[in-house]
Design goal:
The protein is 41% helix and 23% strand. By secondary structure, the chain is of the alpha/beta class. The structure holds L-homoserine (HSE). L-homoserine (HSE) binds at residues 156, 181-183, 209-211, 217, 222, 322-323.
């Protein structure tokens, strides 16, 4: 399949995906018959650029890395905002990676709805829209005969959602438990080694793990969003923000982590949900002092882990990166290749 891509937002995640696409262009074409051009980019800080025939992404990345605006690209149409880029360019697939308020889901929610209504596929790492309206957006995509992919909203490029949807299909999943936030896991790992909370947080920000406002990470809101997403998308429930008990890691001191270590334990921020006998869900984000024998205790740095409790297999755990520029960029490639696969299947079926 040939794709015409438009980036809405071009921060670290968008740039991470662009690097992967450039480096793997040939293998993607040969192995998956995935061909693409990037026709447009619109970013609230960096400006915008549109060329219906495709942009030179190596040049674009050089410009952005040099701190220059997209308007300095030598050719093409400039000055288009996010909505005109979605509606008025020839892009068939929108990569939505803007800075978005996780609670309202905006501006990503409007971008995604606009694109789906215009008959364009969307891939996005924005959690807000999935927390608020996953089912509606998936239905909207189906009605418009396009796809909405959001693998990266949980565990970044580690395919936790695809695992539940595709490979574990046929199981009843009635709960999950995991380390769902990379920043806090990184901070707790460093604190256990003796680093202060403040210094560890600064490092997590520098490495690109933390949210634009890191309060979302350390107070447990980011993990809470992921618990809502997993409860709704994987467990088939209908939770919102207020349905999850929450406590972050800000009250855990360096001394607490050192004391736990001396006692053969480790602090972890755990997100979990369990379907009760009456069908209701008990969902929680809370710091727990785990014995080293707990598999989650061995998961350190910005690595995440998620255990699904299934009826056929019992607990099934996936472990991998939960944050980062290339890691989250890669999650968008998973979604793009899934669209490529499904679209190719449609063509074969039609023949
Ligand atoms: N800030 C998030 C984390 C990014 O640290 O896990 C990935 O969702």
């Amino acid at each position: 399949m040939h794709f015409k891509l438009a980036f809405i937002g071009f921060g670290t995640v968008g740039q991470g995906l662009s690097e992967i696409l450039l480096e793997k262009k040939d293998v993607l074409a040969e192995k998956y018959n995935f061909h693409f051009v990037v026709v447009a980019i619109s970013d609230i800080m960096k400006g915008s650029i549109y060329d219906e025939n495709g942009l030179d992404m190596a040049k674009i990345l050089d410009l952005v890395k040099a701190g220059k605006k997209l308007d300095e690209y030598p050719t093409g149409v400039k000055g288009m905002n996010s909505l005109t880029t979605i509606k008025e360019t020839n892009a068939d697939t929108v990569i939505e990676v803007t800075f978005t308020d996780v609670k309202t889901g905006e501006p990503a929610l409007t971008h995604i709805k606009t694109a789906l209504k215009a008959g364009k596929n969307v891939v996005s790492t924005n959690k807000g829209p999935v927390v608020k309206q996953a089912v509606d957006l998936l239905n909207m995509a189906m009605t418009n005969n396009v796809h909405y992919g959001f693998e990266g909203v949980v565990l970044s490029g580690t395919p936790a959602l695809n695992l539940a949807k595709c490979t574990l299909a046929g199981n009843i999943i009635n709960g999950f438990r995991g380390i769902l936030n990379g920043t806090t896991n990184y901070i707790l790992t460093r604190m256990e080694e003796g680093m202060s909370y403040e210094e560890a947080l600064k490092k997590a920000q520098k490495l690109g793990y933390a949210e634009a406002d890191p309060t979302g990470d350390v107070e447990g809101w980011d993990a809470l969003g992921k618990v809502v997403i997993l409860s709704n998308v994987v467990l088939g429930k209908n939770l919102s923000w207020g349905d999850v008990e929450r406590k972050g890691i800000t009250e855990i001191t360096k001394e607490d982590t050192e004391k736990a270590k001396a006692a053969g334990k480790r602090w972890k921020l755990i997100g979990s949900a369990e379907i009760k006998r009456d069908g209701s869900v008990k969902a929680k984000v809370w710091p727990e002092k785990l014995p080293l024998s707990d598999p989650l205790a061995g998961v350190s740095e910005a690595i995440n882990a998620l255990t699904y409790y299934t009826d056929e297999l019992g607990p099934v755990t996936i472990v991998g990166p939960g944050a980062g520029r290339r890691e989250t960029g890669f999650s968008l490639l998973i979604d793009l290749l899934e669209i490529n696969r499904k679209s190719s299947e449609k063509i074969i079926t039609k023949k």
